[in-house]
Amino acid sequence: MILPTTNYNPQFDVTRASHVVLTVADISKSLEFYQEVIGLILTERDGKTAYLRGLEEDSHHSLTLELADSTGPQCSQLGFRVRDDEHIERAAHFFENAGLALSWVEVPHQRRTLRVRDPQGVPLEFCSGMTVQLRLHSRVDRHRGGCALRFDHTQVAVPDVRVAAEFYASFGFMISDFSYTPKGDMTSAFMHRKDNPHDIVFGSRRGPRLHHLAYVAEAQNLFRAGDVAASLGMARRVEFGPSRHGQDHAPFIYFRDPDGHRVELLGHPIQIMHFESEPIGRDVTDRAQFAPWGQLAPQEWLAEASTFPGEEVSEPVVPRTW
Ligand SMILES: [Fe+2]
């Protein structure tokens, strides 16, 4: 299969996936889940917004919860960091040349911030810096539930995985893993800028929709998160796992938050540190490659996801028949 070609000298430097903005029906209810079960730290809260971060993170926030309007809970932004102010200017030129409408916005605690929607309607937010906070990884008295350490990636359901992979590869994203049908159609693409297999993952499903956001945690704390959820009357918020991924061999557990947004805690993934690393392809019908042991994903994990504001959802061009 001919894969999309990564531009190894992109016009601007995306350093990593950095944050997500979710809208929620009840901020206090969501905070109980994210602080006590997932283990995030509340950096700051005002009436309609709460900013959270992982224990290792010194950036002001990696998850922003905003009170939902009449459209209901959705995912409003997927955030990425670029190297500095010069690179965010270069990003603006790149997206303008690609024919995409962009806007500059003021976001509290963020340096220059640019918003654009990708060709399939995924809302992206690039920023050149954030207010710095204390890292709390050694403040064990503040650790709760799954003790989420740092934001890692999102997975996005899109109608056309190849279109997504080609677009992100054009500004430097590398493919670590991909899957394909027996006919040779791409069904997923794991893409990264930092030194592990994923900053953003695309799956061939009805979309565009946010499938999940993911935080890294110590493996033993995945079980602890499930135990805490059960103790707090949230046992059914555990959707899938604990189990182990095939691609990055990381242990995982998936939760649904009070609004149905899906959150993954995963153990430390492998590192990918060199440009010569080749993408690894997997036959999508070989389920053992995706879940080496344990249960396969439940139907709701395959079918349900969070919508993006104002975006119509379309069927995938490669139908799911596996
Ligand atoms: Fe994930």
Structure keywords:
single chain; about 325 residues; alpha+beta; 2,3-Dihydroxybiphenyl 1,2-Dioxygenase, domain 1; 10-stranded mixed β-sheet; 8-stranded mixed β-sheet; 5 helices; 18 strands; globular; binds fe (ii) ion
Number of helices: 5
What is the CA–CA distance across the termini? 19 Å
Total domain modules = 2
- How many DSSP E strands? 18
Structure class: alpha+beta
Helix content range of the residues, please?
10-25%
Order of helices and strands: EHEEEEHEEEEHEEEEHEEEEHE
What is Rg? 18 Å
Shape: globular
Low-pLDDT stretches are: none
CATH class category name of the largest domain = Alpha Beta
Bound ligands: fe (ii) ion
CATH second-level architecture of the largest domain? Roll
Description of the structure:
With 322 residues, the chain is of the alpha+beta class. The chain has 2 domains: 14-127, 2,3-Dihydroxybiphenyl 1,2-Dioxygenase, domain 1 (Roll); 145-307, Roll (2,3-Dihydroxybiphenyl 1,2-Dioxygenase, domain 1). Helices cover 16% and strands 34% of the residues. The protein contains 5 helices and 18 strands. The strands form 2 sheets. Strands 9, 10, 11, 12, 13, 14, 15, 16, 17 and 18 form a 10-stranded mixed β-sheet that branches. The radius of gyration is 18 Å and the shape is globular. The structure holds fe (ii) ion.
Summarize the helices and strands and which ones pair or pack.
Elements: E1 14-24, H1 27-38, E2 41-45, E3 49-53, E4 63-67, E5 75-82, H2 85-97, E6 102-105, E7 113-117, E8 123-127, E9 150-158, H3 161-169, E10 174-180, E11 186-192, E12 200-204, E13 209-216, H4 219-231, E14 238-244, E15 251-256, E16 262-266, E17 280-283, H5 299-303, E18 306-307
